[in-house]
Amino acid sequence: MRFSYKIINNVGKIEKGMVDGPSKDQVVKNIIKEGHTIVALREKKSKPMFNKISFSKAVSRDELLVFFRQLQTMLGSGLDMLASVTTIIEQCTNKELKLIVSKVRDGLLNGKSLGQCLELYPKTFSSIYIAMIKAGEQGGMLTKVLDRICIHLEKEQEINNKVKFAAIYPSAICVATFIALLIVMVFIIPSFEKLFESSGSLLPLPTRILLVTSRFVARYWLFIGIMFVAIMIGLRTYLKSVPGNYYKTKFVMSIPMIGKTVVGLATARFARIMGALLQSGIPLLSALQISEEVVGNVLLKDALIKARNRMVAGASMSDPLYNSGLFKPMIIQMIKTGEETGTLDEMLTKIADFYEKETYYLLESLLAFLEPVLVFAVAILVGGVVVATILPVFSMLDFVN
């Protein structure tokens, strides 16, 4: 959001200008924190889309990783923050990221910290990174914190690549089978229909079902396509809603193998985030609150919220997590040991490593299981179509004989 402001600065002079911020309240807090008095503050409404079209693409995780790694390397080499950010701007290829980093440099020139500058762009920089950077700046270990952010991004990218790779083969098989069946139904089966009808004999039941289906698809393909798209849009909208997301997560987690994989991915993400936040010097309750918002699993999020509420009342972290039923006893014991020995951040990192390795194994096992199942399903579909097509031919040969 963009705001125009009129202020009396800390030396008594009137200033006017523009400022970006996630909300009006946050902008007010930032201005007051700098010692200025607000005279007027108004939100600048964005112009209609057809007046100005932006062709810049969103900032990907890979580009964020490069940004943080470059910043960490240059700061570790002894360059100051302003020189490092300026160098990154010159190397940026993504227009959106280049614009954001340019505004970050402007904020640094005005005396703001890196964390204060980055929090103005919550769609690009997650609350995890903002909290870690602020803690790193306060503790004088920003370079180490940036390195932890890079490690976190690399691990997430590695997991996402594994999941995407595991999904490629089943998706390709399903799409290819659907297209092949559609071609058969619309173009091939109708050419046999007159031949079958000319035989004069009663067609077998599988052939009649195939012909009726083919006629329906060929005649109403446009309607079927529109209905399919409408159903997919409606389903996607519902699954993004709070109840839809809850039931989707619960259903997916109840599927054998797939549910275990989903739980493993969510737990690894939670443990990795929590470990990184605690290592950066962020208090336990604050780290838990940040993790709730970015864990990506609604059931795990509910468990973390309940755990935090119990911890506010004086309970340990391990007990309410155990009661949720989402964590293995071994994981609960490791968290409990970490709490008792003051090494919770190290334990959470070990938990993340364990679950990531287990998830890789589960993904490989799932893919190995899906391959023969999909091949069998495709064979049944194609075989059914072939049998329904050949049966009348045999009937016609018997009739001729």
Short note summarizing the structure:
It contains 15 helices and 3 strands. With 401 residues, the chain is mostly helical. The protein has a 3-stranded antiparallel sheet, covered by helices on one side.
How does this model look, in words?
With 401 residues, the protein is mainly alpha-helical. Helices cover 75% and strands 5% of the residues. It has a 3-stranded antiparallel β-sheet with strand order 2-1-3, covered by helices on one side. The termini are far apart. About 3% of the residues have low confidence.
* Structural class category: mainly alpha
* Stretches with pLDDT under 50, minimum 5 residues: 46-56
Ends distance: 82 Å
The tally of strands reads: 3
Rg, Cα atoms, Å: 29 Å
* Main sheet: strands, sense, barrel: 3 strands, antiparallel
Shape: elongated
**What value does the average pLDDT take?**
81
- Proportion of helical residues: over 70%
- Count the DSSP helices: 15
Question: What is the percentage of strand-forming residues?
Answer: 5-15%
Q: How are the strands ordered across the major sheet?
A: 2-1-3
H and E string: EEHEHHHHHHHHHHHHHH
Chart the SSEs and their pairings.
Elements: E1 2-8, E2 14-20, H1 24-33, E3 37-43, H2 61-76, H3 81-91, H4 95-109, H5 114-118, H6 127-139, H7 142-198, H8 205-240, H9 242-254, H10 258-279, H11 284-294, H12 298-312, H13 318-324, H14 329-341, H15 344-400
Helix pairs in contact: 2-3, 2-7, 3-4, 6-7, 7-8, 7-10, 7-15, 8-9, 8-15, 9-10, 10-11, 10-15, 11-12, 12-13, 13-14, 14-15
